[in-house]
Amino acid sequence: MRPKARESLLFDRFPDTERIANERTGAICHVTLTLSQLNFENKKIERDKFFEVFITSNMASIAFSRLQRECKEVVTNSEIAETGIMIEILNERLTDIKGQIRGPPDTPYEGGLFDLDIHIPENYPFTPPKIKFTTKIWHPNVSSQTGTICLDILKDQWAASLTLRTVLLSIQALMCTPEPKDPQDAVVARQYIDSHTLFKSTAEYWTVKFAKGKGPENADYKSKVDKIRDMGIREEEAIAVLSCNNWDLSKATEYIFN
Amino acid sequence: MGVVDGQSSQNVSEPGAQADASADKKEESPAAVVPDSSTDDFKDDENQLQDQQLDQIEQEQKQLPLVSDKIPFDVIVMEYDSTNGPEFRKKAEELAVVYSDVRQIRGDGNCFYRAVLVGVTELILKDHEEARRFLTVCEGWVDRLLKLGFPDWTTTDFCDYFVSWVKSIINKELKPDQVIPGLNEDHHCNYLIIFLRLISSGYLKEHTEEYEPFIDNGQSLSDYCCSEIEAMWKDVDHLGITGLVSALERPIRVEYMDRSAAPNGGWHYDFPPEQAEAPKIVLLYRPGHYDLIYRKD
To answer: Is A143 in contact with B191 (Cβ distance < 8 A)?
Structure first.
């Protein structure tokens, strides 16, 4: 069996455990057992520190080293870099990762930078990573409110052999090709199907407002947003309510005050 | 245990995944809420209750080891009496004549794969020739899976993990008396189980024409394999059993407590069918669950 990342982390910090590493019989379980049986009686502080490291890295070390490789794959792959996908590791255990997808060309998201919250569950890679947009996005398969993504590979079509790279590429592909028939956000999906031009301009407006998109701000939409804001509604809410009401100012107003 | 699996797959999906437009609006602007119809609240209550029950079942299951020690088969007999299942009691008593022991497997949706894993492991611990043969079969699967288009390095990783584990049993790097207890280590065992799931799926995919007609709802074999076989904590069905048994080239017998569940309407069934001699690995099937059982010497 190959060396395990969790173990090497432990042994680096606690050189006296190396002996046990050499004696380990191969499977992770035996290491776990031996380590927990270690006699630390005379070194209480040492023991606490030891278990802190041990317990906080409770994800199986093999999963950890795989994750390291997955992250490296995203960061170093030039093809990925060209498509505008990035990740930033937020903690040592690699359970919290920030993702970023550049809006694909020829879509209403072009020029925008969309941040994602990636959480790696304890059972990874046997359960899918939990991923949602933290940048607001107007898309039939993403909740305009919570950023939750409706994508089969993040649910029942998840396979343990998929990686962060494949997942992020799939999300980017979803931005290019929405699936309005399997929506996450019914309002957006309805608009996508019924008034596609309106959908496009709304998605573009959201890209400019929330995703640092460089396109010109739609003047008509801006003036409507300002009118709603004058009623004491936050800009973000004003945009959401107007978008949900197909930019019909009176309907939006009615919605707010009913 | 279908119910437990239901819970597992719920864990997989985002809680907000079903959020509809009205739920979105509700959070959007508290001042501008359109009151929701009470049906939604009712649905929430119902879901909550179901979630609680599933949670409870899952917690109960987690109290049990993944694989129990070998215990006398009488344990199974004692589970039934004339009030809660006279039929099962009778069948259990009959089985107790033939079978002496049982290893109970945790009902987490992996029970079939885990039971076979334990059964195969015991065979290779006992029989060196068998172990060599088994190793060759397993080693062959890396290329077979890659040829089928399984993603490269992650699939190779899963295969390597399994193969090096089998090797460490053969060359005694792993002490024989620690091998089976080791299968109770969750993460370690998950890596072994995913290999079994992948090769089951692989075998079915190698024989797509033969097996695709058995899949309902017009689903493709490939989609079926992804959502039903390769997905952890998903219960096995007849196709999955066929896939695993064929992939491992090791026959198994399943004893059915419930005759209607047996493929031939009888009490037991061999995979593949019509074995010249009785398979060494025997599983006990009770609705939704598999355990491993042992013949009397």
So the answer is: no
Q: Kindly report, residue by residue over B186-225, the tens digit of the pLDDT.
A: 888 999 999 999 999 999 999 999 999 999 888 999 999 9
Choose which CATH entry (3.30.1360.120, 3.40.50.300, 3.10.110.10, 3.20.190.10) describes domain A3-176: 3.10.110.10
Contact at CB, B14 and A130, closer than 8 angstroms: yes
CA distance B193 to chain A (A): 10
Confidence at residue A75, expressed as pLDDT on a 0 to 100 scale: 83
A150 counts as catalytic: yes
pLDDT of residue B46: 67
B14 touches chain A (CB under 8 A): yes
Regions in chain B scoring below 70 on pLDDT: 1-46
Q: Using CA atoms, how far apart are residues B18 and B6, in angstroms rounded to an integer?
A: 16
All residues of chain A having their beta carbon less than 8 Å from the beta carbon of residue B185 are 27-29, 32
How many other C-beta atoms are found inside a 10 Å radius of the C-beta of residue A12?
11
- Record: contact B178-A27, CB cut-off 8 A: yes
- Quick check: A241 and B11 CB within 8 A? no
Interface of A with B in 116-145 (CB under 8 A): 123, 125-128, 130, 132, 143-145
Assess contact for A128 and A146: CB atoms under 8 A: no
Q: Position of tokens 């172990």?
A: B131
Could you give the CA distance from residue B86 to residue B92 in angstroms, rounded to a whole number? Answer: 10
Residues of B in contact with A159 (CB under 8 A): 151, 226, 230-231
Which stretch of DSSP H or E encloses residue B104? strand B99-105
Query: Percent of chain B scored above 70 by pLDDT?
Result: 85
Q: Tell me the per-residue pLDDT of A139-196, one tens digit each, with 9 for 90 and over.
A: 999 999 999 999 999 998 899 999 999 999 999 999 999 999 999 999 999 999 999 9
Which residues of chain A form CATH 3.10.110.10? 3-176
Position with higher pLDDT, A215 vs A175: A175
What is the DSSP secondary structure assignment for residue B234, as one 8-state letter?
A: P
Instruction: Name the nearest CA neighbour of A36 among A20, A60, A22.
Output: A20
Total Cβ atoms within 10 A of residue A180: 19
A187 interfaces chain B, CB cutoff of 8 Å: yes
For residue B47, what pLDDT is reported? Answer: 72
